[in-house]
Amino acid sequence: MGLRVLGIDGGDEKGALVKSLGGEAFVDFTKTKDVVAEIQKITDGGPHGVINVSVSPAAISQSCQYVRTLGKVVLVGLPAGAVCESPVFEHVVKSIQIRGSYVGNRQDTAEAIDFFTRGLVKSPIKIVGLSELPEVYKLMEKGAIVGRYVLDTSK
Fold first, then answer.
1. 49/153 Cα distance (integer angstroms)
2. Mean pLDDT calculated for residue range 110-138
3. Global pTM?
4. Is 131 found in the same domain as 76?
């Protein structure tokens, strides 16, 4: 869609997924000593926009640090009790915008389905039976899920 994508997550398998879906770069936060500096280096000063789906308060606050001047940070993840920290001086000097998004309405859903059916976005999905739910939770706790799992309650 003309966007340049950088993914941030932990693990080689997730990095391979990002690249296979067209991402230009991947930062593995488990291996990178300074995530903020690395992202700013790769993007030549920071990304213009960040869509943060993380449930990590540290990752949420970091996105406000690595976004470039006049950039936008959109927070989507809903970690219980988390706070987005952005130093006011830096926030004002960089003139960044921080917004929240409750993941869409009917129009957004229709547009997303249209993008998907036209092949503009890809979403790796694994369908599992309800009996596999305990294993899915174990994988989630380990951060080992690549893509998304969908429960088929008929199985």
1. 37
2. 86
3. 0.77
4. no
